Amino acid sequence: MSPRTPEQNEQIRAESKHRIMEAAFELIAKSGYESTSISMIAKKAGVSKGLLYNYFESKEDLVKALVLGLMEEGDQLMGDMMGEDPRETLKGFIQ
């Protein structure tokens, strides 16, 4: 088996980080911030706690990354809708 390329390693890292963030979002949405532990997030994401801490220093750091990601998505959505007919913009929000 040949060694992975830097691109493959980057893809694996991105996928792991994405799984961690998705798991955190789902668990926190369901159980709340205080009731969700790093261990629960790591288990749901299918990663070790050590790997999770490789990407995020703390649960607070992870939640900050989630919020920033959501804000960026919202900014992108708003930017995509600028200049559109207001009715089309409203349709976009509803969908």
What does this structure look like?
The chain has a single domain, classed as Tetracycline Repressor, domain 2 (Orthogonal Bundle), CATH 1.10.357. The protein is mostly helical and 95 residues long. The chain is built from 5 helices and no strands. The protein is flat.
Which features does this protein show?
95 residues, mainly alpha, Tetracycline Repressor, domain 2, 5 helices, 77% helix, flat
Produce the secondary structure layout.
Layout: H1 6-31, H2 38-45, H3 49-55, H4 59-81, H5 86-94
Helix pairs in contact: 1-2
Brief account:
Helix content is 77%, strand content 0%. The chain is an all-alpha fold.
Low-confidence stretches: none
Distance between the termini: 46 Å
- Major sheet summary line: none
What's the count of strands? 0
Strand content: under 5%
Rg over CA atoms: 17 Å
N-to-C series of helices and strands: HHHHH
CATH topology, what is it called?
Tetracycline Repressor, domain 2
The CATH homologous superfamily is called Tetracycline Repressor, domain 2
- Count of distinct structural domains: 1
Query: Please, what is the average pLDDT?
Result: 89
Tell me the CATH architecture: Orthogonal Bundle
The shape, in one word, is: flat
| Helix/strand class | mainly alpha
